[in-house]
Amino acid sequence: MGDRPERVRENLDRVKRFLGAEKLLFMDQCHGDGIVVFRARMDGALGPPPPRADALITDVPGAALLVKQADCQAVILYDPEKRVAANVHCGWRGNVCNVLGRVVERMVREFGCRAERLRAAIGPSLGPCCGEFRDYGKLFPSAFLRYRVDDCRFDLWSVSCSQLMEAGLEPSHMEVACICTRCRTDFFFSYRAEGRTGRFGTVVMLNSG
Ligand SMILES: [Zn+2]
């Protein structure tokens, strides 16, 4: 989107250096429910080019998982006992296809995680103050109506929390930053506020300790 490749590369390198990461994994995000699992000895499996997907899961320390966003949610999931982490790109389309539920299911199935043990964090993203969807009748299933805050605004943070609870997470294990990107363009890129814009990132990494 008009960003110079060498600058993007430099920024990605900065993230990697800052975290002391061995690898920085990211995706060609497409607002779907594709999940990529990164395990030890999978060198090269994640590109380039990056895989087309919206969720990354790993149990490999030092492998940082990056989600790029500008209003969509990045949702971090973590199992402190099995030491498995996930980072999910979830915009309204992700909510509609319940990508969060699918990621929890995959963590349970593939890593033996227990949903009630998982921690979840929802970062800065489009808030209920600005989540306007005039065509909601066409876009959303009727179950989403309960998250309508007024005429055509929706609380997608609550949608995500409900989907995580349906997947088995404990409410006390979930945290929402409650920072709206469209309101806070002084800190974040917002597609809704700015149209053509950059992306900011959310990263999670298991340390080796
Ligand atoms: Zn807002």
Q: Please, could you describe this protein's structure?
A:
The chain is α/β, with parallel strands linked by helices and 209 residues long. The protein has one domain (5-204): CNF1/YfiH-like putative cysteine hydrolases, CATH 3.60.140.10. The protein contains six helices and nine strands, in the order αββββββααβααβαβ. It has helices spanning 5-19, 92-96, 99-111, 136-139, 156-166, 191-194, and strands at residues 23-25, 35-38, 55-58, 63-69, 73-79, 84-90, 119-122, 174-176, 200-204. Strands 2-3-6-5-7-8 form a six-stranded mixed beta sheet. The chain is globular and about 50 Å long. The chain starts with a helix and ends in a 5-residue tail after the last strand. The model has no long low-confidence stretch (mean pLDDT 93). The structure holds zinc ion (ZN). The site of zinc ion (ZN) has 6 residues, from loops.
The tally of domains stands at 1
For the record, what CATH class applies?
Answer: Alpha Beta
The CATH level-2 architecture is identified as: 4-Layer Sandwich
What is the helix content? 10-25%
* Morphology: globular
List how many beta strands DSSP finds: 9
Task: Give the cofactors and ligands.
Answer: zinc ion
State Rg: 17 Å
Order of strands across the biggest sheet?
Answer: 2-3-6-5-7-8
Could you state the CATH homologous superfamily?
CNF1/YfiH-like putative cysteine hydrolases
